[in-house]
């Protein structure tokens, strides 16, 4: 498994998931039109498809490693899309989560 394509897939999946969830958030919490649900659902379908492209023998391992990427992507979304700058704890937590994701996904395992 190579790190670059895997990271690119995870990044695309995170963007799709966050965009889909935000569309629902915008409709439900911010009073946006229900039309927001259409691209939201499409984004969530894309998220599921992208995550299924990860080269891993076990779905649970692929999902667990994705969790770290999702956390960092969510902090970036908060900053770039919502205008709330991450604090020291957001950044520290993101680094810890990415380290954990890397351990899960790229650790050498005996056959």
From TrEMBL:
A GO CC term attached to the entry: plasma membrane
Subcellular localization(s) per the UniProt record: Cell membrane
Membrane topology category: Multi-pass membrane protein
Keyword Transferase: no
Transmembrane segments: 7-28, 34-51, 63-79, 91-108
Entry keyword Transport: no
Residues annotated as signal peptide: none
Keywords: Cell membrane, Membrane, Transmembrane, Transmembrane helix
Name by which UniProt lists this protein: Uncharacterized protein
Species of origin: Nitratireductor basaltis
């Amino acid at each position: 498994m190579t790190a670059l394509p895997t990271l690119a897939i995870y990044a695309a999946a995170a963007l799709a998931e966050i965009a889909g969830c935000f569309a629902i958030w915008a409709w439900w919490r911010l009073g946006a039109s229900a039309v927001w649900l259409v691209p939201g659902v499409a984004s969530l379908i894309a998220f599921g498809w992208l995550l299924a492209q990860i080269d891993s023998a076990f779905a649970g391992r692929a999902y667990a490693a994705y969790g770290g990427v999702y956390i960092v992507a969510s902090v970036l979304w908060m900053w770039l899309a919502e205008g709330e700058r991450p604090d020291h704890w957001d950044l520290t937590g993101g680094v810890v989560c990415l380290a954990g994701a890397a351990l899960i996904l790229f650790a050498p395992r005996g056959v």
